Amino acid sequence: MHKPLVWLPACHRNLDLSDPGGYIVLADRYAEAVAEMDLQPVLFPLAGAGDVDALLPLVDGVLLTGSPSNVEATHYGGTALPTDLLDPRRDALTMRLVRAAIDSAVPLFGVCRGLQEINVALGGTLHQQVHAQEGLLDHREPEDEPLEVQFGHRHEIRIEAGSALEDWAGGTTAQVNSLHGQGINRLGTGLVAEAFAPDGLVEAVRVQGSASFAYGVQWHPEWRHATTPFYARTFEAFARACRERCARRKSSA
Ligand SMILES: N[C@@H](CCC(=O)NCCCC(=O)O)C(=O)O
């Protein structure tokens, strides 16, 4: 019997290697976090939007990872900045996958870029440079510091009382890391903001009325999740939803 399968859409990059070809990449800490929850991470390397209907029924959850690339602004009526690192193939897949996962009640969890993808797929918009917006903070990581510092707690969030996030955090405030230049501007249709940074930026969303787990967070709960109770409980809630779907799939097979 296999473990519940979690689809992690990969990124497409031209790595700085002597081989000029493109690469399909996935940061290992997302796959490790999934595996540590006793779930099986899976990749469908060349899957595009047209493959979603065939592949989604095979999996028990979808984790949209963070990535240095930005969702291309054309997906929300803007124009990409000349400095943007883009990944049109990932965009094309995830814009379809978000809607399909919600419609099919497949557990969906978006981290950082993943949260932004959920928002854009549901018709929302992004600030292309949060730090350039009057009144908003700089949410980017200190790039020259070691990873431990980059992923260290950076600011507080305020969590809506009565939300599942409050349960996972053990209260209505928590400390989180912060490694992003973009952020939610207008919320997508059907999204409820459940956590906010001190400058008011939306830090977490829930899909209202979703038949399964459907959340996005702007921070990185995969980082040191085993030793950070808030992050661990968030991942555990996603994992539980994946296990439940897996059990349902097996019993109806
Ligand atoms: N590029 C977007 C999304 C930020 C993001 O997902 N960062 C994660 C970086 C580390 C990783 O690869 O997981 C933005 O800047 O807002």
From TrEMBL:
Pathway participation? Amine and polyamine degradation; putrescine degradation; 4-aminobutanoate from putrescine: step 4/4
Catalysed reaction, written as an equation: 4-(gamma-L-glutamylamino)butanoate + H2O = 4-aminobutanoate + L-glutamate
Keyword entries, A-Z: Hydrolase
Q: Does the record carry Iron as a key word?
A: no
Q: Could you tell me the Gene Ontology terms of the biological process aspect for this record?
A: polyamine catabolic process
Q: What class of enzyme is it?
A: hydrolase
- EC number from the UniProt entry: 3.5.1.94
Q: Which InterPro entries does the UniProt entry name for this protein?
A: Class_I_gatase-like, Peptidase_C26, PuuD-like
Q: Which SUPFAM superfamilies match?
A: Class I glutamine amidotransferase-like
Q: Which GO terms describe its cellular component?
A: cytosol
Question: A single GO molecular function, which one?
Answer: gamma-glutamyl-gamma-aminobutyrate hydrolase activity
Q: Hey, which family's this protein in? A: Belongs to the peptidase C26 family.
What is the protein's known function?
Answer: Involved in the breakdown of putrescine via hydrolysis of the gamma-glutamyl linkage of gamma-glutamyl-gamma-aminobutyrate.
What is the protein name given in its UniProt record? gamma-glutamyl-gamma-aminobutyrate hydrolase
Organism of provenance: Ramlibacter aurantiacus
Taxon lineage = Bacteria, Pseudomonadati, Pseudomonadota, Betaproteobacteria, Burkholderiales
